[in-house]
Amino acid sequence: MILTYLAFIGLYGVILAQGNLRPEEELFFETQAEKAIWQKEQENPLMLFTAVHAKDIQYQKWEELIQELDHKRSKTKNDYNFLRSIFQKSHQTLLKNYVQHSTFNDMLEEGNFDCVSGSATLGMLLDRYNYNYEIIETDYHVFILVDINDKTIILESTLAIGGMISSPSEVRAYLESYQPVEFAQLASLTERLGDPELSLDDHAIFRKVTLTELAGLQYYNDAITHFNERSFGLASKQLSKALVLYNSERIKNLQDLAKEQAYKVYGYDIK
Predict the structure, then answer these.
(1) From what superkingdom does this record's organism come (predicted)?
(2) How many domains does the chain have?
(3) Any domain includes 271
(4) How far is the C-alpha of 74 from the C-alpha of 115, rounded, in Å?
């Protein structure tokens, strides 16, 4: 597939505020729909998650889920029980098939999701219903911590059954499996987030990220696809957008590597 990229410079609000790009730098977009999201909707997490490969975005299932959960919330004040409803109904309506490297739009259209799109879904719902939560980025995986009455609950989006972990001993064991090790370094820049079965031996990353930063990680994942296909220029373009959303060392390092590989393999410099 040949992609036509659309240049857009006037993103001063979000770009200059975060300091990730110089004013003269350009971002490049696959579609007019993606460009429109960045022009007008960069403060809206839902729209940011639909920006990757944006075309004819299907919101119907999302809206159905919101409508059902709003109704359930109006009937209960029990935060724990409603959290279980959020988790279960999300899987019944949207998070149907765990498929590595799926985008948020794949989930809306086909029900295919990974830990990034799954955690994005749960995070936006937790925001809507005013839960106290954190999205946790690790070396190659993302999950959510929710605090209810000083009790920590884990939402592991990739497990429809057993993915809401509330037992204190199970929560402790889960978190210990991801705890970083001093001086550990990320072994692979070209392994995408989204595989909870991947070896956890690196133990280099364990940090809280915002929904906007998680949207940046979705661009990072997409860039890795292009990188592994040796499309280093496209990878760098996706990483430029990822950096606007999330000023992350792993994103910067992968963009440097993409530029280096483009010169070594094809003999051209990526701006």
Answers:
(1) Bacteria
(2) 1
(3) no
(4) 29
Do residues 260 and 241 lie in contact, with contact meaning Cβ atoms separated by under 8 Å? Answer: no
Supply φ then ψ for residue 108, to 5 degrees. -65, -35
| β-pairing verdict for 27-29 and 132-138 | unpaired
What rounded mean pLDDT belongs to the chain?
A: 87
Tokens linked to 89: 């109904």
For residue 224, tell me if it sits in a domain: yes
Q: What is the pLDDT of residue 142?
A: 96
Tokens 């209810």 correspond to 148
Domain that holds residue 65: 6-266
Asked if the structure places residue 1 within a domain, the reply is no
Alpha-carbon span 32 to 55, nearest angstrom: 8
Q: Note the pTM of the prediction, 2 decimals.
A: 0.87
Q: How confident is the model at residue 193 (pLDDT cuts 50, 70, 90)?
A: low
**Entry field: residues in the chain:** 271
Q: Is the pLDDT of residue 20 over 70?
A: no
Does the CA dihedral 189-219-205-84 come out positive or negative? negative
Least confident of 12-26, 44-58, 133-147: 12-26
Q: What DSSP line would sit under 46-67, residue for residue?
A: HHHHT-TT-SS---HHHHHHHH
> Cβ–Cβ contacts within 10 Å for residue 213, how many?
18
Q: Which of 3-17, 224-238, 244-258 has the lowest mean pLDDT?
A: 3-17
Pull the structure tokens for residue 83. 């959290």
Q: Please give the average per-residue pLDDT across 168-174, as a whole number.
A: 97
